[in-house]
Design goal:
Helices cover 56% and strands 2% of the residues. By secondary structure, the protein is mainly alpha-helical. The protein has a domain of 291 residues: Hypothetical protein af1432. Keywords: Hydrolase.
Length: 448
């Protein structure tokens, strides 16, 4: 793979349009960022759980604020990488003019990396999958192909993000959000189909990156950008190198920011947070500055900023130094796992504390359980109603609740199920709970 082909301003749905070279306020990749910022799927992230329940008396991160922060970190990673490459080769802009846009490409991909996540995060993904593996959805297995069944039984938010950005939803622009090919490729962490994914020890196939209905779309993207076939899977591809930086930005943010939220919610003490973050602050003596701040929240903010700065510089340096491996697809770990040993060990400590005390905190577990039940119950209502040939009056009323954009003209079972999943997975936490309560008769809509 080579940067000149990997960085393309060709736009989805406008493949034959020449890229404008006249002076403009924005580059093609900045346009990607702006299109995402103003999009409905992005706005809905404000009511999707990141870790802690929303809303609360104390503000914590939701999917939207998380995505904005990841985009900020991603932009810095891209700029640092470009600066390092420019230092090594002052004439690099002549060889690869779009390399200076790497920060914008990564920040756009970071904005969209969680667009496909359903309500209640991983609990929502699990609920959708279990409906087909353990629930009423098992009866549809004989009506779909084995590849389609693998999609349904392993719902993946990453693959759903690519669908949201490229699928011609009913009544919407058939070109989707018309993002550049490079931005689209940079969000696909695991460039293979569901049936080829979930391979332990293979970083490209840890999960999967596109549904069967988007397989041809990804083939087009891969061919245009010159992505290499995965030698262990001829039906899949090696990652676009920028995926590693998008992944690193996400890893940096959720590992560090979750500690800050846990402190705000009094799950972790200030002393615990300091012990976890101070070793990541680049050897700078912060003792005097920390002691001068009376507010512990301000101390945590300082530690958070310094720790993120250390991780950004470390990841950008690894990415620049190992260019050959990233371009050949032979780098087989996350960037965060390739940092200096003391940092990796400290991140393992943070991960262990997060699992034990944050992700298993009572409020977190309660929302996961509730979300699982809500999502599963919605599928039990909407999937059968939408698939029935002879619908009851009640079935028709349920189907009428699905917005027109989610309906499909396709008559096969897989396409119909996918239409319902588009509807349910796009819901915010608040809307999912509200709809669940109404259709179950727990609450009655006001007639006022």
């Amino acid at each position: 793979m080579n940067w000149k082909q990997l960085l393309s301003a060709k736009r989805w749905g406008y493949e034959y349009r020449e890229v404008s070279d006249h002076l403009d306020a924005r580059s093609e990749f900045q346009r990607d960022y702006d299109r995402l910022i103003f999009s409905s799927p992005f706005r809905r992230l404000q009511n999707k759980t990141q870790v802690f329940p929303l809303p609360g008396a104390v503000f914590v991160h939701n999917r939207l604020t998380h995505s904005l922060e990841v985009a900020s970190v991603g932009r810095s990673l891209g700029r640092l990488f470009y600066n390092l490459m420019k230092k090594e080769n002052p004439d690099i802009d002549e060889d690869c003019p779009f390399l200076q846009e790497v920060g914008n490409i990564i920040s756009s991909a970071c904005l969209s990396h969680d667009l496909g996540n359903p309500a209640f995060g991983h609990s929502g993904e699990a609920a959708i999958s279990s409906y087909f593996t353990e629930g009423e959805g098992r009866k549809y297995q004989e009506q779909v192909t084995s590849k389609q069944w693998a999609d349904l039984t392993n719902f993946e938010g990453n693959a759903n993000a690519l669908r949201i950005l490229t699928h011609p939803f009913n009544g919407k622009d058939e070109k989707g959000y018309a993002l550049t090919y490079s931005t689209l490729a940079s969000i696909v962490k695991y460039p293979c189909a569901a049936i080829d994914g979930h391979i332990k020890g293979n970083h490209h196939r840890k999960k999967y990156g596109f549904f069967q209905c988007e397989s041809e779309a990804f083939e087009r993207i891969a061919h245009e950008l010159g992505l290499q076939r995965d030698p262990t899977n001829p039906n899949g591809y090696l990652r676009h190198p920028l995926v590693y930086l998008v992944e690193a930005a996400d890893d940096i943010c959720y590992n560090i920011i979750d500690l800050e939220d846990a402190h705000h919610l009094k799950i972790l003490s200030y002393q615990q947070v300091e012990e976890l973050l101070l070793p990541l602050c680049g050897g700078e003596d912060l003792r005097a500055r920390l002691d001068s701040l009376q507010d512990t929240g301000s101390r945590v903010e300082l530690l958070r900023a310094k720790a993120i700065n250390t991780l950004i510089h470390g990841c950008a340096d690894v990415f620049a130094r190992h260019q050959d491996q990233f371009l050949s697809g032979t780098f087989q770990s996350a960037l965060m796992d390739a940092l200096d040993a003391p940092i990796v060990e400290q991140m393992k400590k943070i991960s262990a504390i997060s699992v034990a005390q944050i992700y298993n905190a009572p409020t977190v577990v309660q929302i996961e359980i509730a979300g699982y039940k809500v999502m599963n119950a919605l599928l039990e209502e909407f999937v059968p109603a939408y698939l029935k040939t002879n619908k009851t009056v009640f079935d028709n009323k349920l189907v009428a609740m699905m917005p027109a954009q989610f309906h499909t003209h396709q008559q096969d079972t897989y396409s119909k199920i996918r239409a319902v999943l588009d509807f349910v997975s796009g819901m915010t936490d608040v809307y999912a709970v509200e709809l669940y309560r109404k259709i179950k008769g727990i609450s009655i809509p006001s007639l006022d």
